[in-house]
Amino acid sequence: MIELGLGRISRLLQQTPLSWKAIHIAGTNGKGSISAYLSHMLTAGGVRCGRFTSPHLIDRWDCITIGESVVQESLFRKIEERVRLRDQSLGIGASEFELLTATAFEIFNHEHVEVGVVEVGMGGRLDATNVLSDVLVSIIAKIGLDHQAFLGDTLELITREKAGILKPGVPCVVDGTNAPEVIRTLEDRVNELKIDAVYAHPDTICSQSPSLGRIFRELDLQRHQRANMSCAVSALRLALAKVRPGLEVDMLLPSLKNVEWPGRLQKISLSPLTARTEPVLLDGAHNSQSAEVLGEYVDKNLRPQGDITWVIAASRGKDVTALFHSIIKSGDKVAITAFGPVDGMPWVKAADTEELALCIQSIPGVQDVRTFGGDVLAAINWACTEAGDCPLVIAGSLYLVSDVHRLLREARRSAGNIPGSLVA
Fold first, then answer.
1. Cβ atoms of residues 162 and 120 within 8 Å
2. DSSP annotation of 249
3. CB-side exposure of 325: number of CA atoms within 13 Å?
4. Which fold has domain 266-415?
5. Domain boundaries, the chain
6. CATH number of this structure's domain 6-258, picked from the four choices 3.40.980.10, 3.40.190.10, 1.10.10.10, 3.40.1190.10
7. Cβ 401 vs Cβ 313: under 8 Å
8. Cα–Cα distance for residue pair 255/173, rounded to 1 Å
9. Helix 180-193 vs helix 155-162: angle between axes, to the nearest 10 degrees?
10. By Cβ atoms counted within 10 A, which residue in 95, 181, 342, 399 is the most buried?
11. Euclidean distance between CA atoms 352 and 228, whole angstroms
12. What cellular-component terms does GO give this entry (predicted)?
């Protein structure tokens, strides 16, 4: 169950003041990438940095990193238990996300983090992470329609909720590629608070930093990746002025070449899970905005190689028509599955596979649609056989991405091959 509000998290952390400064990131899409860019650059600059994102990828604790390394499970469990006991003794009744947020923040204290890069869970104004007070800079990433039942059914309403992280006296960075109505709503809030704001646009940032422009070209970044990187670089300039005066951002830009963000346009090998040798595209696109990005990439880079075979799942309550109808096209084949239970997030449920099949079958010209219930591996195996040498894409949910990574990890452990990274 999702319960927004700051009362419970405030009580959880009342006796443990936070000893670090924060960079706080809200938005519909791009938060994770921006946080990864920031923490990599901060770490490269010698700043002890923690990062808290959601949801986790494989294990509950991998959403917390210290200096680019996932926090040790033993430390996570020790501090989580302390937080849970406090919740019980005080009768707070905190939600799972509030307990996780408090755990992450206390781990940052324990690890003597100097700057914590913190991603909003949902919305902003009433999100548990908005308990932060010592914020260096706030960031508003790309905003689109998602979680309308909680945040409102228009871009303006959703933007107001996400703008709730903006604070008096704290500068902010806004993704300048946002829709005009989003920009107008944010400008109203910025003017109301009388705070400094940077509207980061890749073209403008590149004119100010030729070094960043070179990285854009070298990495051949997609449009949304350039926007996310521009937000991160703009925010870092503001943050470093307060924590490391004199440290030049351009010196840290090369570290961006090493950033990997699993589940976002990620090319992976499914070996030894399957016999397929060609790489597979894994993407957690789960709303219309992220699906548009995925569709552009697939059309440009994969469709010239042949029709696409898909493995898809979605969270219950998602607008699956908006999610899939723009990316699955005539001639494609589709395997439909359901991700398993999400550790620490019992309210998240997978969409019914038969209902999702009806949605996909209504797309003109779709060649074959099969359902596999909750058997993700069976769906992958069928898709690998059907795809042959042609492209295969796994998409629709970050929770499906997580299941695939867990299956790969277990297969590689069984084969005695445990790589340091699941990135191909």
1. yes
2. G
3. 11
4. Protein-Tyrosine Phosphatase; Chain A (3.90.190)
5. 6-258, 266-415
6. 3.40.1190.10
7. no
8. 21
9. 40
10. 399
11. 33
12. cytosol; mitochondrion
If you compute the radius of gyration of the chain from its CA atoms, what whole number of angstroms results? 21
- 3-class SS of residue 311: strand
pLDDT tens over the chain, length 424 residues: 566 778 999 999 998 889 999 999 999 888 999 999 999 999 999 999 999 998 888 999 999 999 999 999 999 999 999 999 999 999 999 999 999 999 999 999 999 999 999 999 988 899 999 999 999 999 999 998 765 556 666 888 999 999 999 999 999 999 999 999 999 999 999 999 999 999 999 988 877 788 888 888 888 788 888 999 999 999 999 999 999 998 989 999 999 988 887 888 899 999 999 999 999 999 988 788 889 889 999 999 999 999 999 999 999 988 899 889 989 999 999 999 999 998 877 888 999 999 999 999 999 999 899 999 999 999 999 999 999 999 999 999 999 999 999 999 999 998 886 554 444 3
Backbone angles phi, psi at 135, to 5 degrees: -105, 130
Judged by phi (left if over 0) then psi (alpha if -120 to 50, else beta), residue 32 lies in: alpha
Residue type, 137: V
